[in-house]
Design goal:
alpha/beta; TIM Barrel; five-stranded parallel sheet; three-stranded antiparallel sheet; 10 strands; 13% strand
Length: 225
Amino acid sequence: MYEFFGGKIFDDVPVYANGWNYHCLGAEEWAAAAVRPIEDGYKALKCYPLATQDQFGRLKHVTRRAHDREFTELAYQRVKKLVEFVGSDVEIMLDLSGGLTTGETIRLCQRYEDLGIRWLEEPCDAFDVGALKRIADSTNMSIAAGERLYTRYGFRKVLSVTLANFMTLEIYPYFSDSPNFVNVLENPPEARIKDGRLKVEDKLGLGVALAKDNVKPFLWAECKL
């Protein structure tokens, strides 16, 4: 895949840990859960300050475009405590999953500005370019978007007007310790992560192979030539 972008530059690349604290609620325990990925060697952590856990143990995002004032304050304290806990050697990325209204998102982002956050991901609906522009113009934080964009036409709307500093393409399922997780790859990339870095493979495509037996129970149509 990297040959399409001019060839390989690095033998390995840094990666961030994700899904390490979504089972926590209070700000203190939410931050303290960072011990696990840090001990595994990660120097970057992504988290969901607005999310909770549902009755089945799965990540639950905002569903009504707003939280009450108490939970919004918790969303801020979670990140503040996390930054204090990990120190300046670990980068923090926030994912809001486009859950709040544009105004609420702007107000929350402005509170996060002094915490040294690496990027703010999915601050609004991926297809609402107008909202993304309002948010980008209202904060000095770097914006990340892309995991819910598809095809070159979807990305063009964001890239043509430089509304995002980072593009986060969704290419692989995560949260392997979530209930009912199914590994769809025979050679998952996370198995090659060491000290928070991923070795760049020279195999075709994304360098992975589909675990056909694992996905077979979910097959709903088949085309034979």
